[in-house]
Amino acid sequence: MDTSLKALRYFMAAVNNGSITEASKEMHVVPSAVLAAVNQVEDAFGLKLTTRHRAKGIAPTATGQILMSRIQHLLDEYETLMGAGAEMRTQLTGTLRIGYYAPVAPAFLPGIAHAMLKDNPRVDIKFTECDNQTAQAGLVSGRFDVILCVAESMQPDVTYETLIEVPAYLLVPEQHKFAERDCVSLSDLADENLVLLDLPVVSEYYSRVFEIADVKPLVASTATTLEMVRSLVGAGVGCSLLHMRPETNITYAGDTVIEVPLRPAVDPLKIVLGHLPDNPRRIVKYFVDGLRDLFSTKDPSRYLVTLRSR
């Protein structure tokens, strides 16, 4: 037979007060409710835990005394757990786990992280870079609280919203012949060496846009990180097709790279925020609201390469 936390509370009140009547007053219930709880606890353990005398009230047996400390520990642990849960709903506390598949997420995520951490010392954030499918699977499984990814092949049980649509642009070395042009077309790239990101979703995107433009790309090199692609371009290995841009046009190697808009424009990539709608943690809401604010009320154009941005 199982018992309940309420029954355990009533049992502890009875043996600590030494009286069913006094316990009922403390718990604000009728005496019969306390008596029923004591009986339920003894039945659940299959042990005699109390002795009861009309004149002397109720007292724990030797076995009851052994179990009392463990029962109290269980009740204390439950209260601590519930308090932690309430705190997570109402205060900025705990660990926020973010999975992201957005090659230039470092351009904007650190600012939001700083705003959260500077005034909330009980918060820590874990960022994990991963591919689109891993991000979504991690959100559903509970590994991540929030994800940032590209709006491709989204799982139906993930709630997501578009943060920004980012047009493609061409990245070239500073001395490249395209560097001074207002724009280029994909057809202009037919004889150009290219350096491309080799990542899920993005690779398929490249194939699709080049096929639509009827251009067979001359791929000189691929890389799995944005900065390696930028550094290869800066070193003169080739040009690259990218989307969101970082704040700087200097590569890790110290070379200058230039962003050139594409005209006619090709299909943009959508950067989306994914989360589970039933996650009430305040830390999650704070982060989600911060991202929404960044891309809706502030100027996101600094992440985009357009004709006017040049």
TrEMBL record:
Q: Name one GO cellular component term.
A: protein-DNA complex
Which terms are listed as keywords in the entry?
A: DNA-binding, Transcription, Transcription regulation
**Protein's UniProt keywords contain ATP-binding:** no
Q: Give a yes or no for keyword Protease in this entry.
A: no
Query: What's a Pfam family this protein contains?
Result: LysR_substrate
User: Which Gene Ontology MF annotations are present?
Assistant: DNA binding; DNA-binding transcription factor activity
InterPro entries attached here? LysR_HTH_N (IPR000847), LysR_subst-bd (IPR005119), WH-like_DNA-bd_sf (IPR036388), WH_DNA-bd_sf (IPR036390)
Domain HTH lysR-type stretches? 1-61
Q: What's the family?
A: Belongs to the LysR transcriptional regulatory family.
Q: What is this protein called?
A: Hydrogen peroxide-inducible genes activator
Lineage, top ranks: Bacteria, Pseudomonadati, Pseudomonadota, Alphaproteobacteria, Rhodobacterales
